[in-house]
């Protein structure tokens, strides 16, 4: 590895980290340096790098400790056999960069991952030293997200949780067969075992803090994971089933989906083209249905066509069209659970409907004032002045709900 200065390393290792999507900072405890104590905070805004699930703009220094790796996962740009320029930060360099970027108001936290160098324990220990140095030596109170290494010793993962707000372990691929085929050096059982260990530590810490105020916090923002979409043959039905299992078994705060992107000198077993980015978007919408709208995984799977979510309409609309017998829904009488299944009605809109209808009966205009657009809702709702008799019986309803594709016009055409 050629000698590189810090600027050159930053260019290489920040670019290498762009494939990791799981870097939202919501859900952690609030800390600040108001009053002259410490450096940094988990609040406020700087230059935006990503959006948290609650809509806040967050700015994170998102880098790898190194893009060298002893593993040779087919889908990874940083795999052992990849022909890419390599670089490696020292622990002190990452600490200095984080503090320097924060003091210039560029960031509000650190997202740190790494390729595996030497051994899993050696790499994880270096990641932990970064977080420990920032917290204990510099009293850094900003957000820290560490990408954990499942093969590392449990005591290293436990120490990481004392300094990091969030820990994440990538599930990598939706199915065990896909992992065996594309990342044979990784073990799905060990990955899930590490996730289970983190969940147990997080739950134990929550219980301890109920009884002892002095108990240190452990990963207060929980754990997250990420899976690659489109690198193997797993369909959307399998992906949402895997995600549902991760939420139920390991208490994940987020499951992130990353559309596979063709990489230089790719293995012959990989697809030649990436999946449409809209597929990734539909998976996030399906994920939202399971987390916030009360949909069971089997119901989300019912919205698929031959295992894949349709790209021309969102999953909730696809489900509604396959369950026409449950619609239209009376907005003045239906329970909250059914209102949440109406296409075009979000959680905030449903809560507003429930508040308003306690005072008076709602008409279609009232509903229009609570939502972004009424056209999508009309076939699925009944109001005091509206009953969609003709719309509900249309055989081409799906065609009326699909937005026409927008073509880019030529400036000098």
From TrEMBL:
<feature type="domain" description="Radical SAM core">
    <location>
        <begin position="53"/>
        <end position="296"/>
    </location>
</feature>
<keyword id="KW-0949">S-adenosyl-L-methionine</keyword>
<dbReference type="GO" id="GO:0003824">
    <property type="term" value="F:catalytic activity"/>
</dbReference>
<dbReference type="InterPro" id="IPR010994">
    <property type="entry name" value="RuvA_2-like"/>
</dbReference>
<dbReference type="InterPro" id="IPR051675">
    <property type="entry name" value="Endo/Exo/Phosphatase_dom_1"/>
</dbReference>
<dbReference type="InterPro" id="IPR023874">
    <property type="entry name" value="DNA_rSAM_put"/>
</dbReference>
<dbReference type="InterPro" id="IPR006638">
    <property type="entry name" value="Elp3/MiaA/NifB-like_rSAM"/>
</dbReference>
<protein>
    <submittedName>
        <fullName>DNA modification/repair radical SAM protein</fullName>
    </submittedName>
</protein>
<dbReference type="GO" id="GO:0046872">
    <property type="term" value="F:metal ion binding"/>
</dbReference>
<keyword id="KW-0411">Iron-sulfur</keyword>
<dbReference type="InterPro" id="IPR007197">
    <property type="entry name" value="rSAM"/>
</dbReference>
<keyword id="KW-0408">Iron</keyword>
<keyword id="KW-0479">Metal-binding</keyword>
<dbReference type="GO" id="GO:0051536">
    <property type="term" value="F:iron-sulfur cluster binding"/>
</dbReference>
<dbReference type="Pfam" id="PF04055">
    <property type="entry name" value="Radical_SAM"/>
</dbReference>
<dbReference type="InterPro" id="IPR013785">
    <property type="entry name" value="Aldolase_TIM"/>
</dbReference>
<dbReference type="InterPro" id="IPR058240">
    <property type="entry name" value="rSAM_sf"/>
</dbReference>
């Amino acid at each position: 590895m050629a000698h590189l200065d810090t600027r050159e390393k930053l260019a290489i290792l920040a670019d290498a980290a762009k494939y990791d999507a799981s870097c939202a900072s919501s859900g952690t405890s609030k800390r600040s340096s108001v009053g002259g104590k410490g450096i940094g905070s988990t609040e406020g805004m700087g230059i935006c790098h990503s959006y948290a699930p609650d809509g806040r703009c967050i700015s994170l220094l998102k880098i790898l400790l190194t893009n060298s790796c002893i593993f040779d996962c087919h889908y990874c740009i940083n795999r052992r056999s990849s022909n890419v320029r390599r670089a490696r930060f020292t622990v002190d360099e990452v600490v200095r960069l984080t503090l320097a970027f924060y003091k210039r108001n560029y960031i509000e936290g650190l997202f740190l991952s790494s390729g595996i160098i030497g051994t899993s324990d050696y790499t994880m220990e270096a990641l932990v030293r970064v977080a420990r140095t920032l917290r204990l030596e510099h009293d850094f109170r900003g957000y820290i997200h560490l990408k954990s290494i499942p093969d590392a010793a449990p005591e290293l993962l436990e120490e990481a949780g004392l300094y990091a707000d969030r820990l994440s372990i990538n599930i990598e691929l939706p199915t065990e067969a896909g992992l065996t085929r594309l990342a044979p050096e990784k073990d799905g059982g060990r990955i899930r075992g590490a996730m289970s260990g983190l969940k147990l530590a997080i739950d134990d810490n929550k219980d301890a803090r109920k009884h002892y105020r002095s108990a240190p916090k452990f990963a207060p923002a929980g754990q997250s994971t990420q899976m690659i979409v489109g690198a193997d043959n797993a369909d959307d039905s399998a992906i949402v089933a895997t995600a549902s299992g991760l939420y139920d078994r390991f208490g994940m705060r987020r499951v992130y989906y990353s559309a596979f992107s063709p990489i230089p000198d790719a293995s012959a077993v990989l697809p030649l083209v990436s999946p449409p980015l809209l597929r990734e978007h539909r998976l996030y919408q399906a994920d939202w249905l399971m987390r916030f709208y009360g949909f069971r995984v089997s119901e989300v799977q019912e919205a698929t066509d031959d295992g894949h979510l349709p790209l021309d309409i969102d999953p909730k609309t696809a489900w509604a069209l396959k369950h026409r017998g449950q619609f239209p829904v009376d907005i003045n009488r239906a329970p909250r659970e059914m209102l949440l299944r109406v296409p075009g009605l979000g959680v905030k809109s449903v809560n507003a409907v429930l508040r308003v209808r306690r005072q008076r009966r709602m008409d279609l205009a009232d509903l229009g004032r609570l939502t972004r657009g009424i056209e999508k809702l009309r076939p699925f709702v009944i109001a005091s002045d509206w009953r969609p008799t003709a719309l509900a019986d249309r055989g081409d309803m799906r065609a009326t709900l699909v937005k026409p594709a927008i073509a880019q016009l030529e400036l000098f055409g």
